[in-house]
Amino acid sequence: MMLNCSQSLPHRHSFPSSTPRLSTSPFCLSLSFASSPSLSSSSASKLRLSSCSFHDASINLNPKPKHKGLKVICSKGEPLKVMISGPPGSGKGTQCEMIVKKFGLVHVSTGDLLRAEVAAGSDIGNRAKEYMSSGRLVPDEIVTAMVKARLARKDAKENGWLLDGYPRSFAQAQSLEEMKIRPDVYIVLDVPDEILVDRGVGRRLDPVTGKIYHITNFPPENDEIRDRLVTRPDDTEEKVKSRLKIYKKNAEAILPIYRDILKKVDGNHLKEVVFKDVETLLLHVKENEETEKLVVGSDNYLVRPTSSKESWRGIPTRLNNIPHSREIREYFYNDVLQATTRAINDGKTRLKVEINIPELNPEMDVYRIGTLMELVRTVALSFADDGKHVKVCVQGSMGQGALAGMPLQLAGSRKILEFMDWGEYGAKDTFIKIGSIGAKEVDEEDDMYILVAPQNAVGNCIIDDLKAMTDAAGTRPVVLVNPRLKDVPGSSGIMQTMGREKRLEYAASFEICYVFRLLYYAGTQYPIMGALRMSHPYAYELFKRIDESPGKEKYVPLASFPERPTGEEINDAFEGRDR
């Protein structure tokens, strides 16, 4: 009682690189998926993992497609509300100036507020002055009241606001929450400690002009200025490290309140480079605020990704109807995204996704390459939204001379990724870059890598390049989407035996974070009998498809497995035998 997996031969194809829309009929691509071991079946009633073919349909590469038959609810946009935080020396003040200039936000700094209120002689300013004159800290309730009053002014309500370096404690953050003051995004400038210490210790003050220099990064214009520069009393290494320690303690305290909207930006670059990342991030937040969409499908399940297992609405129906609706595709894109996000948040760094809905089944003679590209784009954009630099990689040509080439199933995929619409806020080439597989593709600024269907080809093996890349990536996450890393015959027609055991061991080192496979009777592609699904960190779940009435169906849970079930275990569950 075993599972039998069929595999179709790849077809020749052509790809017109200049067109933004692709039709699947002129070519048949098959990006291979990690498949179960090929097993025999002794009964026609046994199940196998397979998929159905589909009819000709065009693929729209725009990430904002029209949802036919879906209900879209839009909320009116509001001005940007931003909090920004960063340790001393992170360049936060400079970034605030650039943000205000670009977006026209009202800059709100508690230090400026205190000085302004004291100078104005207001009631709250006089109360604050009593504490400041005696060298005591101004109580949270006074500072928070000033912040609330400033954000309530007309200019802040109309233009939006940038709250600089506040709140600094959990109590302050909690007070803002109680007052319903919450930003759209909480930006944290991330700079290594050793760089921050160097920036602080190397800082010099010109007592004549008040201008700040740095002995290495921003030296004075001439010797005359250099000779009169002084070191400020609080720029010693001991005090710089002390301020950094206090900042980290405060930042950790408020993290639980803003974790869901926190976006880290690498601040260890030139100010223009850092601001490019900040600008891209804020443009995306602004875009979402202006046209936030909640898509409700015809089956009343949400297309928007959710974060918990309890919110999962079950397997969508009519999966043998090809082409799939936009609603069904986005359902699976988000299902994969949730599992991948949970796995990475759990500290997993070597991950594998296996999904073979009919439009993504490599064992058929046709499939929609655009569906796979859209899946990759959804995952990449989501992590880019969190401020991560993502590199999407497709393997290039392998071998040399007459043996040079690449798997037919991957031909043209790099061009599709390059021509795809990656959104209006410029994620591509800033937070997302396209590359190939190999150690030379690993850059210091990369935070994670998504590899599109890496696979071996006859006479060539991708695993050496893949291993070199993962070694260079270190602890940064690497996600393989539908890999095929089993050994294939060499150019001589025999299996590649040199180092085969180590290659297979390396291929098995990637943890599966998502699996979805449809189940059919052996030798058939219709009807669907059930499905196998696993979404990290949960168990493998086996579902049976049931016809309720003409044109209606549903999937019901049949069994769960702590590990990936064998074909025999799946057959036993369908036939009601005890395991």
TrEMBL record:
<feature type="region of interest" description="Disordered">
    <location>
        <begin position="1"/>
        <end position="20"/>
    </location>
</feature>
<keyword id="KW-0808">Transferase</keyword>
<comment type="subunit">
    <text>Monomer.</text>
</comment>
<dbReference type="InterPro" id="IPR033690">
    <property type="entry name" value="Adenylat_kinase_CS"/>
</dbReference>
<keyword id="KW-0067">ATP-binding</keyword>
<keyword id="KW-0418">Kinase</keyword>
<comment type="similarity">
    <text>Belongs to the adenylate kinase family.</text>
</comment>
<keyword id="KW-0547">Nucleotide-binding</keyword>
<dbReference type="InterPro" id="IPR018962">
    <property type="entry name" value="DUF1995"/>
</dbReference>
<protein>
    <recommendedName>
        <fullName>adenylate kinase</fullName>
        <ecNumber>2.7.4.3</ecNumber>
    </recommendedName>
</protein>
<dbReference type="GO" id="GO:0004017">
    <property type="term" value="F:AMP kinase activity"/>
</dbReference>
<dbReference type="Pfam" id="PF09353">
    <property type="entry name" value="DUF1995"/>
</dbReference>
<feature type="region of interest" description="Disordered">
    <location>
        <begin position="557"/>
        <end position="579"/>
    </location>
</feature>
<dbReference type="InterPro" id="IPR000850">
    <property type="entry name" value="Adenylat/UMP-CMP_kin"/>
</dbReference>
<keyword id="KW-0150">Chloroplast</keyword>
<dbReference type="InterPro" id="IPR053021">
    <property type="entry name" value="Chloroplast_ADK"/>
</dbReference>
<keyword id="KW-0934">Plastid</keyword>
<dbReference type="Pfam" id="PF00406">
    <property type="entry name" value="ADK"/>
</dbReference>
<feature type="domain" description="DUF1995">
    <location>
        <begin position="329"/>
        <end position="571"/>
    </location>
</feature>
<dbReference type="GO" id="GO:0009507">
    <property type="term" value="C:chloroplast"/>
</dbReference>
<dbReference type="InterPro" id="IPR027417">
    <property type="entry name" value="P-loop_NTPase"/>
</dbReference>
<dbReference type="InterPro" id="IPR006259">
    <property type="entry name" value="Adenyl_kin_sub"/>
</dbReference>
<dbReference type="GO" id="GO:0005524">
    <property type="term" value="F:ATP binding"/>
</dbReference>
